[in-house]
Amino acid sequence: MRKAVAMFVLIAFVLTGCSNAADEPSGDSIQIQIDGGDISPKGDRVETKTGDVITLQIDSDRAGELHVHSTPEQEFAFEIGKSTIELTIDSPGIVDVEDHETGVVILQLEVS
């Protein structure tokens, strides 16, 4: 009986993959498409938490710069083609992420 219980515990442990939620990365990945003046998304609100890593996957037909209106403000350059930007926000509130060239607010981060 003890062997059966031990085997059950071992199998349960293996099937869970030794997972611990604290070890898993937190945050969001957001796709941004820039085609001339056409930008997607526009003004979408994304909920996140302070300290979470937010990954912006940018696919653009031009080089440019994103302004993140956080405290302190952050600026990120991107190139033609595919770029990846990672950012974190340390203070709660609503933070605009804006395309510098067009002034379009791509998204708003609702940070709690």
Summarize the structure in words:
- Helix content is 12%, strand content 51%.
- It contains one helix and nine strands; from the N terminus they run αβββββββββ.
- It has a single domain, classed as Immunoglobulin-like, CATH 2.60.40.420.
- The longest helix is centred in the N-terminal third of the chain and has 14 residues, at 2-15.
- With 112 residues, it is mainly β.
Layout: helices, strands, pairs:
Blueprint: H1 2-15, E1 27-35, E2 38-40, E3 44-48, E4 53-60, E5 64-68, E6 74-78, E7 81-88, E8 93-99, E9 105-111
In short:
The chain is mainly β. 12% of the residues lie in helices and 51% in strands.
Task: Report mean pLDDT, rounded to a whole number.
Answer: 82
CATH class: Mainly Beta
Structural class: mainly beta
**Number of helices, where a helix is a run of at least 4 consecutive DSSP H or I residues:** 1
Number of beta-strand segments: 9
Order of helices and strands: HEEEEEEEEE
- The unreliable regions are 4-26
CATH homologous superfamily title: Cupredoxins -  blue copper proteins
Gap between N and C termini: 50 Å
The CATH architecture? Sandwich
Note the main sheet. Answer: 5 strands, mixed
Tally the structural domains: 1
